Amino acid sequence: MARSVSFFSFIFLISALLALLYRFGFSRLFSVVLSATTLIIIYLLFHPRNQWLVANRSRVSGAGCVALTFDDGPDPVDTPRLLDLLREKGVKATFFIVGKRAERHPEIVRRAWAEGHLVANHTWSHYSLFCFLTPRRLRAEIERGTESVRRSCGVRPRLFRSPVGLRHPLLAPYLEDAGLEYISWTIRTRDTLTSNSSVLARRMLKAVSGDIILLHDHLPGGTDAMLDVLPHVIDELRERGFQFVLAGPREDAGGTLQPAACEYAP
Ligand SMILES: [Zn+2]
Question: What is the pTM of this model?
Answer without folding.
Answer: 0.86
